[in-house]
Design brief:
three-stranded antiparallel beta sheet
C-alpha cells in the first residue's frame, strides 16, 4: 500500500462550488411536500380484517410522452426513457470506475474502485487488523466519500417519487459535475497520489443515491454485486417456469453490459488523456443537470 501523502492546500474552486450548490438546494428541498406527492399521501385504508390494503400502483405515463413535466419543475420519465438514462449512467460509472482502477490517474499507480466501496470495507478492516493505519485511513476516506455523496442526494431530494426528477436531482448532478471536475484537476496537478479519488468516489455515491431512490432500486447504476446476484436468481426462476421478473432481468443485463463497456472505454481514454478523461463524465453530469433545470423551468411558465 503506498504512503498516503497529505492533499495539496491549493485552491479547489470546483469543490467550493459543489458545497455552495448543495447548501443552496437544501432549504428548498426541505419544504413541506406539495399536495399529491408520495410524502403527503395518506396511509392505505384498512380492510375489514384489519389489514391495510395495498395502495394502487401509480398510473404509467403515456409512451408518447417520454419526458413530461408538472408544476414545481419535476420531470417525469417514462419507464423506457428511465432505462435508457440508467444505461447511460451505468456506462458513466463504469468509465469513472475504470479510470480510477487503472492506476493511470495516480502519480504512484494507486488503484481504487470509485463506483463501489465493498472492497474498501474489507481492505480497511485488514489494515486495522494488521496495524497498517495508512491503509485503514485511506479506505475509511473512500467509504466516507461514497456515503457523503449519497447524503447529498438525500438532502437535496428528501422525498423522492418514482421516475420523477425534481430540482434536487438536477442540483445533485450539478454537484457531481463539480466533484468530477475537481477530481480531474487534482489528478492532473499530481500533488497527492490519492486525493483525486475522494471527489470521484463521492460523485459515484451521488449518482447511485439518486438513481436508486428514483427507481425504487430498479436502476442501480454504480455497483453491480446485487444486480449480478439478481440476474442469477431471476434466471433460475425462469428456468423453472417463473417469468415474473423477466423484465427486471433484461434491464439488469443491459445495465451491467453498459457498465462493462464504460470500463473498457475508460482504459483507452485514461491512457491518452490521464486525469482529464474524467471531464467527460463531468460534462455528462452537467448536461443532465442543465437539461432537468431547463425542462423544469419551462413547466413553470
Amino acid at each position: 500500500m503506498p504512503n498516503i501523502k497529505p492533499p495539496s492546500r491549493g485552491r479547489r474552486p470546483a469543490l467550493v462550488v459543489a458545497l455552495l450548490f448543495a447548501l443552496a438546494g437544501i432549504s428548498e428541498s426541505s419544504r413541506v411536500p406539495p399536495k399529491g406527492s408520495i410524502a403527503s399521501t395518506p396511509s392505505a385504508p384498512l380492510r375489514t380484517d384489519g389489514r391495510r390494503r395495498s395502495p394502487a400502483p401509480p398510473a404509467p405515463h403515456a409512451a408518447s410522452d417520454a419526458l413530461s413535466t408538472r408544476a414545481g419543475g419535476t420531470v417525469h420519465l417514462h419507464i423506457h426513457s428511465a432505462i435508457f438514462y440508467g444505461m447511460l449512467l451505468s456506462f458513466n460509472s463504469g468509465f469513472v470506475n475504470g479510470a480510477c482502477l487503472s492506476g493511470l490517474l495516480s502519480s504512484d499507480g494507486t488503484k481504487q474502485a470509485a463506483a463501489a466501496v465493498t472492497g474498501a470495507w474489507t481492505n480497511g478492516a485488514l489494515g486495522a487488523a494488521a496495524g497498517q493505519w495508512g491503509q485503514f485511513a485511506f479506505n475509511a476516506k473512500c467509504i466516507g466519500s461514497y456515503a457523503g455523496g449519497s447524503l447529498i442526494s438525500g438532502l437535496l431530494s428528501p422525498r423522492p417519487e418514482p421516475f420523477a426528477a425534481g430540482p434536487g436531482v438536477a442540483r445533485s448532478f450539478g454537484i457531481g459535475a463539480a466533484l468530477l471536475a475537481a477530481s480531474a484537476h487534482m489528478s492532473a496537478k499530481g500533488a497527492s497520489a490519492t486525493a483525486f479519488l475522494y471527489p470521484a468516489v463521492a460523485a459515484c455515491g451521488i449518482q447511485n443515491g439518486v438513481t436508486s431512490a428514483l427507481s425504487s432500486n430498479l436502476l442501480r447504476t454504480s455497483h453491480f454485486s446485487g444486480i449480478t446476484s439478481d440476474v442469477g436468481t431471476f434466471l433460475g426462476q425462469m428456468l423453472r417456469g417463473n417469468n415474473a421478473n423477466k423484465m427486471k432481468m433484461k434491464t439488469f443485463v443491459c445495465l451491467a453490459l453498459s457498465f462493462w463497456c464504460g470500463g473498457a472505454v475508460s482504459y483507452h481514454a485514461a491512457s491518452k488523456f490521464l486525469g482529464s478523461s474524467l471531464l467527460f463524465s463531468a460534462s455528462l453530469y452537467l448536461l443532465i443537470s442543465l437539461g432537468l433545470l431547463m425542462k423544469g423551468d419551462k413547466s413553470e411558465q
